[in-house]
Amino acid sequence: MIELRQIPVLRDNYIHLLHLPDSGHTIAVDPAEAAPVLAALAASGWSLTHVFNTHHHADHIGGNNGLKQSTGCEIVGSDQDGPRIPGLDRRVQEGDCFLIGHTEIRVMEVPGHTRGHLAFWLPGEQMIFVGDTLFSLGCGRLFEGTAALMWQSLQKIRALPGETRIYCAHEYTEANARFALTVEPDNADLQRRAEQVRQYRRQGLSTVPSTLAEERACNPFLRPDSPSIRARLNLMHADDVGVFAELRRLKDVF
Ligand SMILES: [Zn+2]
């Protein structure tokens, strides 16, 4: 059974620290900074063996060099992003599958937010680390890709088993809920999730992870086929990409 620590850093980032007790490996996903990870390692007695980077943005790789210097960990990232990921040791791509200890890691390429964006799926643990591609009730901005490319990426994630827990890299859920309610106000699942999120945040609790089943029911960016969203946007006859693109455009100016 994997042990997981969620480390809130910067304004709204999460670094996830995973420990595999049977093999002794420890993985830091998207370490924005080294110091909070080193502090968590010291507190837990875990030794860092790997860093996984979903993409090259500074708030996901800022701790790479410091962690490598302090621990000698191996850094895993996108083959396409070689020069943009400090200290990259193992270059991975779509479909790659490898073991850390006895835990299977599957690599998915999910471009759109950046062109080299990856997701790391642990099917045996029903966990996926999605960086800035999918957020709870939202999705990443399109910095290096089109709406069509991002929609393709989101569909790959959407097709995974519903019980998969979605670990994204930011606590954006409350603001995302406000937008989601403007495009699908009559969605009862979304209303319930938005209320839960408000309560969690009022208590200072994290809203990450959610499950994929919850996101499929509530997240407008996974629901461009929803008749209610289509009616709201006056896009009854558009294709899914067209509806997704309009949702992303509206969120950019929300
Ligand atoms: Zn980013």
- Distinct ligands: zinc ion
- Rounded to the nearest angstrom, the distance between the terminal CA atoms is 41 Å
Using only C-alpha atoms, the radius of gyration works out to: 18 Å
**Strand percent estimate:** 15-25%
Q: Just name the CATH architecture.
A: 4-Layer Sandwich
How many helical elements?
A: 9
Any idea how many domains? 1
Helix and strand composition category: alpha/beta
**How many strands appear in the DSSP assignment?**
14
Side-by-side strand order of the widest sheet: 1-2-3-4-5-6
The coarse overall form would be: globular
CATH superfamily: Ribonuclease Z/Hydroxyacylglutathione hydrolase-like
Major sheet, described briefly? Answer: 6 strands, mixed
By CATH, the topology is Metallo-beta-lactamase, Chain A
Percent helix among the residues?
25-40%
pLDDT < 50 runs, ≥5 residues? none
Under CATH at level 1, the class stands as: Alpha Beta
Molecular structure report:
The chain is of the alpha/beta class and 254 residues long. The protein has a single domain (3-252), classed as Metallo-beta-lactamase, Chain A. It is built from nine helices and 14 strands. The strands form three sheets. The chain has a six-stranded mixed beta sheet with strand order 1-2-3-4-5-6, covered by helices on one side. β2 (13-20) and β3 (25-29) form a beta hairpin. α5 (173-183) runs antiparallel to α6. The site of zinc ion has 4 residues, from loops.
